[in-house]
Amino acid sequence: QEYTCIKLEVLDWSDLAGQTLAAIPALAEKKVFLVAATLRPETMYAQTNCFAGTKLEYGLFQSANTDEVYVVTERAARNMAFQSLSPAGGQLSKLGSISGQALIGTKVNAPLSCYTGGVYVLPMDNVLATKGTGIVTSVPSDSPDDYAALRDLKKKSDYYGIQPEWVNGFEPAPVISTSTYGEMIAPALCEQMKIASQKDRDQLAKAKETAYKEGFYNGVMGVGDFKGQSVQEAKPKVRELLISQGDAFAYAEPEGVVISRSG
Ligand code: ZZB
């Protein structure tokens, strides 16, 4: 799989993360990014938040650009090292580690997002340790999984242990429109398929399939630098734009191949 990795710069650590990371003085001089792997760079204009897995463990890894540190799973860091994304020689340079739970509530900058003041790291049940970086950027207008999870968090912020201000005001934002589903394909599919929560895994898998196909073959950009162009046309252009701005990089992942035995 050829992903685009989006660099979400940390603006404010959560209290817990701040306490944990105070023990690593080297971080003070670095820019730290949560790095999210996506197949949909063209949707980045509508990012509302970012997801981490509360049961996952993340590392802070020095990137090839030594001013920068990436927060990803160790498995992803190893894959990155094979792709010359870490310092010389394919070695990992790990500055520390942090739990997904501690990351919740951290404020990050989401490149291109209409939420320009930053978005929050929130918990999601279904973040897989075995895919991408373990960090997922959330686009509830176009991703049924993201819509269902964000809606759960808004309904039950207490239960999920998050502060209401981390989700209030962060509504799905229009980015792509299709003639069949309008400009909010994920909410439309979740309603049509009666998806009640992020726990409806089977229905969500079907909704995701439909959203991918509809978006790719029939989608038109409604906002941003390539407004009016088809998604097929705009997708590689948005990707290049993000990469040229230093907000993203290419990241490939061999499908079904176990690279790391330790992770
Ligand atoms: C933003 C985005 C916007 C995504 C969208 C999808 C959609 P796939 O399809 O299964 O190969 N993702 C990335 N890493 C993880 C992970 N570790 N655990 C769970 N989900 C993850 O997976 C690729 C997509 O799954 C990625 O693209 C990411 O969400 C998420 F509008 O990034 B995407 C219809 C989907 N729309």
What does this structure look like?
The chain has eight helices and twelve strands. It has a domain at 2-140 and 156-172 and 234-252: Alpha-Beta Complex (Isoleucyl-tRNA Synthetase, domain 2). It is globular. A hairpin with a 5-residue loop joins strand 4 and strand 5 (68-72). The protein has 263 residues and is of the alpha+beta class. The protein starts with a strand and ends in an 11-residue tail after the last strand. Helix 6 (185-192) packs across helix 7 (201-218). 48% of the residues are buried. The strands form two sheets. Strands 1, 2, 3, 4, 5, 6, 7, 8, 9 and 12 form a ten-stranded mixed sheet that branches. The chain has a two-stranded antiparallel ribbon with strand order 10-11. The protein has helices at 15-21, 74-82, 100-103, 144-155, 157-160, 185-192, 201-218, 231-244; strands at 2-12, 31-38, 49-52, 57-62, 68-72, 94-99, 107-109, 119-123, 135-138, 176-177, 220-221, 248-252. Bound molecules: ligand ZZB. Ligand ZZB is lined by residues 37-40, 43, 126-128, 131-132, 134, 136-137, 139, 142-143, 208, 211-212.
Q: Give the termini distance in whole angstroms.
A: 19 Å
CATH architecture of the domain at 2-140 and 156-172 and 234-252: Alpha-Beta Complex
DSSP strand count: 12
By secondary-structure content and strand pairing, the structural class works out as: alpha+beta
Give the SSE map.
Elements: E1 2-12, H1 15-21, E2 31-38, E3 49-52, E4 57-62, E5 68-72, H2 74-82, E6 94-99, H3 100-103, E7 107-109, E8 119-123, E9 135-138, H4 144-155, H5 157-160, E10 176-177, H6 185-192, H7 201-218, E11 220-221, H8 231-244, E12 248-252
Parallel strand pairs: 2-5, 3-8
Antiparallel strand pairs: 1-2, 1-7, 1-12, 3-9, 4-5, 4-6, 7-8, 10-11
The structure holds ligand ZZB.
